[in-house]
Amino acid sequence: PRRAGRAGMNPAGCAFHLVGVGGVGMSALAEVLLARGARVSGSDRHFDEGRPLPVFVPLAAAGLRLLPQDGSGVSERPDAVIVSTAVEPGNPDLDAAAAQGVPVRHRAEVLAALAGAGRCVAVAGTSGKTTVTAMLGWALAAAGADPTVVNGGAVLDWMDARHTGSVRAGGDLWVVEADESDRSLLRFRPDRAVLTGIGADHFPIGEAIDCFRAFAGRVRRGLVTTRAAAALLGPGVRAEAVDPEGFAPELGPDGSRFHWAGLDWTLRLPGAHNAGNALLAAALCRALGCDLERVRDALADFRGVHRRMECVADTGARRVLDDVAHNPDKIRAAWAAAAARGRVVGVWRPHGFGPLAQMFDALADAFAGLCGEGHPLFLLPVYYAGGTARGQRTAVELAEALAARGVRAAAVAGFDALRTALDRELRDGDTLLIMGARDPDLPAFAREMAGRWAGVHLESPTPCACVTDRGST
Questions:
Q1: Residues 228, 257: contact at Cβ < 8 Å?
Q2: Quick one: which of 7, 83, 4, 77 has its CA closest to 39?
Q3: Radius of gyration of the chain (CA)
Q4: What is the pTM of this model?
Q5: pLDDT tens digit sequence for 228-263
Q6: Which of 137, 78, 87, 81 is nearest to 110 (CA)?
Q7: Rounded CA gap, 83 and 466, in Å?
């Protein structure tokens, strides 16, 4: 973009075309560009296939022009075509950009340039970064800091017909989620940062540690993290481990409590992982000089993030939870929080052939440790969003590996078979936990089950992005 520079970027008056605009990262970038005065168009394969995503509604209301993914979005020669890592060679918009000499920029590069115009706080980590980003933005807003927030998930209280929920348009304090899956977090040079944790997900653990070490080296002023992550980073990395020795929040089925910094903290979100997320957000707020009592009160009112242990229905006897959990750590955290109320009936969909193969043994270990004592698991086929990844391992193979270890796991052919199986399995007192990333049909199915089984009527789909940038083109 012609107005980009080392000190940041002013997009006002510029024109951008976003390829795969339905992805949660791309839709958030589109919204923030529009809020900053840019002219924005976008294309998405779901639009071309006649499958409009809910996120298209607030984006159109904000001024996005949604166009076919056939190169027509480049015909007006925008200042830049913006892509995510999911966009592969041969995409018609990319071919048109090359033919017409229009520069192509990565989503993270543009976001880093925007945030570089002010103070930037980046939130990274294998698990929990979306929730911490949301908590941090929510608390800073309550404390009067007026942050601009760009997140990888929709804050429930920020979502409406004109806003995706992934963005809060504010001042020059930026709070952004930084993604390690494609190492695009290394495009940021934040003033401060949060590292939520380190685990094997998109890379083996050694590569993940190296990636987060490199990110830590790019933080200008201060990094807050956990004792476990600090130990993996090693003594050569400057980081403040904020969880005290023996940190053990008091957990209930509908929230948690803990004591920190001389204050008693209460959360509406279940699970020890969410107490840890809140602690990291509070610690970063403290580093920025915020009044901790105002931060505490804000976090007590925080309702959560779409598809992060989102309670779609709860009648007391029947509960439906929806979560993006796609790696072993996230699955364990979600399952443990759900199990606080009794028996869990789990549904999980692998979010790609590569990730399933990479984590196959670790996933088998995770589910084998969770699905005992009558907790059944149903596995949907691998979600294939197009591209070059194929085969490798399947949900059927994972079900067979779990069955060999005595786990009640069954692979189902699709959502029709899943409905039939759940109709036979579910009973009063159960929690139906639906997990998986990328597939926009998962949150829709959770809402359907809220009506079919829990008897909760939901007026309309939530207006938010339901796919990630990996698979949104």
A1: no
A2: 77
A3: 21
A4: 0.85
A5: 999 999 998 999 999 998 899 998 888 999 999 999
A6: 81
A7: 18
